[in-house]
């Protein structure tokens, strides 16, 4: 894929488990503004591997909503479900080189270990089985995940979480593996996403190391919470954003992202709002915390 003028390539990668809600819009808008202010590319990828969670038609609704909000992507949209051969090729290579192994441990087997894999199947050399998970081996080095906004996260993967799953027992490729393979393939240099994925970053850095690929720059924006303190999410029934209210919703999103758009833009068309936002994007104004202080409610 050709590089952008200055080498910046960002992306937005929603899951089609429902329509876009206000929290999704914040992540999309932040990544879009960061790319455009840096004269970079902004790519779109549909992360639809977790098929039990996918909702029919949600992917097309996401594309239509982004378009209605003026968030136009570059190049061709990628669906992860069309890239299974690429993921499997990496798994086959790692299994052959003993960088990964089959694991038949159930959740019940691991319940007593508080989320840290105890290495049960590391030396068992299980035969290939579609009903087995695949775990990638980790070592005891300290992984440092630096971020443009959040505090540096340092994790020793051998003790948190241990060898981790890259293909689930139901055969579905794990998010951690697919996202890194795709970001490498697309030449992603900068990742702007929600702070709920900050804890995933050390594992993804480890996978970049195994793939001998450069680690992108990260910017994890604070999460928007519901009144009960839960993350605003499709799973919890967050209200979809309405395309016919795009200008007002964009103006509100810029305020939520602490960009302080001038009051005279409150009734401006989308193109004018985005032009101002690109020229004035200042991610350092975001709170350096994993959550926004002001909680969101569906009544706002």
From TrEMBL:
Lineage of source species: Bacteria, Pseudomonadati, Pseudomonadota, Gammaproteobacteria, Pseudomonadales
Gene Ontology MF annotations: ATP binding; glutamate-tRNA ligase activity; zinc ion binding
Cofactor(s) in the UniProt record: Zn(2+)
Cofactor comment: Binds 1 zinc ion per subunit.
Cited NCBIfam families: PRK05710.1-3, queuosine_YadB
Native species: Halopseudomonas salegens
Family: Belongs to the class-I aminoacyl-tRNA synthetase family. GluQ subfamily.
UniProt short sequence motif 'KMSKS' region, positions renumbered to this chain: 231-235
UniProt keywords, alphabetically: Aminoacyl-tRNA synthetase, ATP-binding, Ligase, Metal-binding, Nucleotide-binding, Protein biosynthesis, Zinc
SUPFAM superfamilies tied to this protein: Nucleotidylyl transferase
Residues given in the record as ATP binding sites: 234
HAMAP family noted in UniProt: Glu_Q_tRNA_synth
Protein name per the record: Glutamyl-Q tRNA(Asp) synthetase
Entry annotated with the keyword Ligase: yes
EC number: 6.1.1.-
Biological processes, Gene Ontology terms: glutamyl-tRNA aminoacylation; tRNA modification
């Amino acid at each position: 894929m050709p590089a952008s003028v200055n080498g910046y390539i960002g992306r937005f990668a929603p899951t089609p488990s429902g329509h876009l809600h206000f929290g999704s819009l914040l992540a999309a808008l932040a990544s879009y503004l960061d790319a455009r202010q840096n004269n970079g590319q902004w790519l779109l990828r549909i992360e639809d591997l977790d098929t039990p969670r996918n909702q029919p038609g949600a992917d097309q609704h996401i594309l239509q909503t982004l378009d209605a909000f003026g968030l136009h992507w570059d190049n061709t949209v990628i669906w992860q479900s069309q890239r299974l051969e690429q993921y499997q090729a990496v798994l086959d290579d790692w299994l052959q080189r003993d960088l990964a192994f089959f694991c038949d441990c159930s959740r019940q087997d691991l319940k007593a270990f508080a989320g840290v894999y105890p290495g049960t199947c590391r030396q068992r050399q299980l035969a290939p089985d579609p009903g087995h998970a695949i775990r990638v081996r980790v070592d005891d080095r300290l992984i440092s995940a630096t971020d443009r906004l959040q505090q540096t996260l340092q994790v020793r993967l051998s003790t948190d979480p241990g060898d981790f799953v890259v293909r689930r027992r139901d055969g579905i490729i794990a998010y951690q593996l697919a996202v890194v393979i795709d970001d490498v393939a697309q030449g992603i240099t900068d990742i702007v996403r929600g702070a709920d994925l900050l804890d995933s970053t050390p594992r993804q850095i480890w996978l970049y190391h195994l793939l001998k690929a450069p680690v992108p720059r990260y910017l994890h924006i604070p999460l928007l919470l519901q009144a009960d303190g839960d993350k605003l999410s499709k799973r919890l029934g967050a209200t979809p954003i309405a395309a016919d209210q795009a200008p007002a919703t964009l103006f509100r999103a810029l305020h939520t992202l602490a960009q302080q758009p001038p009051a005279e833009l409150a009734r401006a068309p989308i193109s004018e709002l985005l032009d101002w936002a690109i020229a004035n994007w200042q991610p350092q104004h975001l709170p350096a915390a994993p959550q926004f202080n002001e909680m969101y409610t569906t009544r706002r």
